[in-house]
Write a structure and sequence with these properties.
This protein is mainly α. It is built from 15 helices and four strands. The N and C termini lie far apart (about 55 Å).
Length: about 375
């Protein structure tokens, strides 16, 4: 087993290799792959952003929330309404959706966070169930367009970014959506990392592990929970705005706006590893990869695997068994990696390499040698 000290040259080399691999992947997708693959990864980026926001609430703070699709819908509808009804520039609607979701998230948190456990989960569940019915409400149909949803939500002309240059056509819009989703993802990750590594983040973990002890130590539970819920809602709303611009449509029957969306965000977070920074990223990419491959295999056929699926589809199923394949694959993954994909990778990596952290408080220690007075030198007094 190889032991590497934290902050050493070898440790920084591992980090550099990891960053280079991520950059290579991000550059490879929009330049070397087909439009369908670009769309799949863009969808994964949107899911990851939602899972990062949910991870702050559930993974780090221990607040059970099933209804984050409510905030996803707020972001999506804010973009759709402002673009189609009021002629806003699509980019500015993302900021508006983020601010609106943050305010709503804080307001929702105030009464809801007086509850705990399953009762809090039921409150968030009611939000997810309420939102599709709310936007279908006849009194709001003038604004939300009722059950039909809002169409034509997009840029009239794709913005020209300095590095990307001019993009046009269907492929150009796919590439632009990819980079827009990636930028939002990076911002969400940086914000999440900054919170987790700060004293505020330690307060979140303290509330998760022992809320009573955290209160005794001086943590303001109400304010902390309210703020983290608002930040989490803002991240999910940003992903909803980006998704609306990518699909040019938002409606009450969109999967990610319904209760299914909230469950999907939670599944991605748990699949990757709750309470870890890279868990939502690993979970989102894995979920979309399995889902897309299962659907293509179930619909396209071909090969031994396709023949087997075709047999079951013809004899046991009326439609594609893609959902069953996805469910089985996820169940197997959870048995193999009960602590998520990141937890599994860490256990495997620890068999070969161990990063030895700095002992607590070593950065603030003063060496004994520095306190010894050289008696050969004259005293300054």
């Amino acid at each position: 087993m190889l032991k590497i000290n934290e902050g050493s040259a070898a440790h920084w080399a591992i980090r550099a290799i990891w960053v280079a691999a991520v950059v290579a992947f991000v550059l490879y997708i929009p330049t070397k792959t087909e439009t369908g693959t670009i769309g799949d990864i863009t969808l994964a980026f949107e899911y990851i952003t939602c899972a990062i926001g949910l991870n702050l609430v559930l993974g780090y703070t221990g607040i059970i929330s099933i209804g984050h699709s409510f905030f996803y819908g707020i972001g999506g509808y804010a973009t759709g309404i402002l673009v189609t009804r009021y002629g806003w520039d699509p980019g500015w609607t993302i900021y508006f959706g983020v601010i609106l979701a943050f305010i709503v998230g804080c307001l929702v948190a105030l009464p809801a966070l007086r509850l705990q456990g399953v009762y809090l989960a039921l409150v968030t569940l009611s939000l997810a169930v309420l939102f599709p019915s709310l936007v279908k409400w006849q009194k709001l149909a003038w604004l939300t367009n009722g059950p039909r949803g809002i169409n034509g939500v997009s840029y009239d002309e794709i913005p020209t970014w300095p590095i990307l240059g001019e993009l046009s056509g269907r492929e150009g819009r796919a590439v632009f959506s990819f980079w827009l989703a990636f930028v939002v993802l990076v911002v969400a990750y940086v914000v999440c990392r900054g919170i987790v590594k700060s004293s505020f983040g330690r307060s979140l973990v303290a509330i998760r592990d022992n809320e009573t002890a955290a209160a005794v130590m001086g943590v303001n539970r109400t304010t902390t929970k309210m703020l983290v819920f608002g930040v989490s809602a803002a991240m999910v709303a940003a992903a909803g705005s980006v998704a609306t611009l990518r699909t040019t449509f938002v409606g009450p029957d969109v999967t990610t706006v319904t209760l299914t969306g909230g469950i999907t965000f939670m599944l991605i977070m748990v699949l990757g590893g709750a309470g870890t920074l890279w868990g939502p990223i690993a979970g989102g990419l894995t979920y979309v990869f399995i889902d897309s491959r299962a659907r293509s295999a179930g619909e396209g056929g071909g090969g031994l695997f396709g023949d087997v699926l075709g047999f079951f589809q013809g004899n046991w199923f009326f439609g594609s068994p893609a959902t069953l394949i996805l469910a089985i694959a996820l169940i197997v993954l959870m048995f193999v990696a009960p602590f998520g994909i990141i937890g599994l990778l860490k256990r495997l990596a620890h068999r070969f390499v161990v990063i030895v952290p700095h002992p607590a408080g070593t950065h603030d220690l003063v060496r004994v040698e520095d306190l010894v007075v050289d008696e050969t030198e004259p005293s300054p007094i």
